[in-house]
């Protein structure tokens, strides 16, 4: 594709593509261990819930099984924060100086955690509510199913999208006083909003793009990038 003779305006596309690849190359080595740790957390948690079911103390509530919503989410946030910070700093570093504590990274870690715990709590709650106390195997099967989908497919995409957001937060934090273009990467999905922001061209960092956003992501699954110009 890129081997075809390119018209002159493609130079910007090639540059954007290189920036996206640079981001991916920085994210990938952080993503793999993060996904492993999140999956381990899910596995440990599933084992705890099953142990609790087998203990014969009756069917626990979701708060009994997983802790309160806040405590549950905080456990995943703690797992995510180191990776999110590493990628946020990596995004900032080539752009300029950024504060040690890049703004937004705690919120991104919390958002990643919440995107995991919200559906897990819903699924576990449904599983625990579906049987009777003496139907332990059915409860255990339901809990297993609640976690399986997460450990197999969803976690990697979610973690990758949030690391992408951390990278952009780093660029944003370090790029004060410069302009940046919005480079579209919506995973192959069409997104008119992100296209509009891209068409706006170089925009001072900290000023809103046409959709009102200061920086990506514009929506779940948005992996768009800010590239200083
Ligand atoms: Zn986007």
Shape by Cα distribution:
elongated
Amount of beta strand? under 5%
Number of structural units classed as domains: 1
Identify low-pLDDT runs.
none
On the 0-100 scale, what is the average pLDDT? 89
- How does the helix and strand content classify structurally? mainly alpha
Order of helices and strands: HHHHHEHEE
Q: Main β-sheet, in a few words? A: 3 strands, antiparallel
Summarize the structure.
The chain is mainly α and 229 residues long.
What features would you describe in this structure?
- The chain is mostly helical and 229 residues long.
- It has one domain (9-176).
- Helices cover 64% and strands 5% of the residues.
- The protein contains six helices and three strands; from the N terminus they run αααααβαββ.
- It has helices at residues 10-54, 62-66, 69-92, 105-129, 136-174, 192-199, and strands spanning 179-183, 203-204, 225-228.
- Strands 2-1-3 form a three-stranded antiparallel β-sheet.
- Helix 1 (10-54) packs antiparallel against helix 3 and helix 3 runs parallel beside helix 5.
- The longest helix has 45 residues, at 10-54.
- The chain is elongated and about 65 Å long.
- The protein binds zinc ion (ZN).
- Residues 184, 186, 191, 194, 216, 218, 222, 224 line the site of zinc ion (ZN).
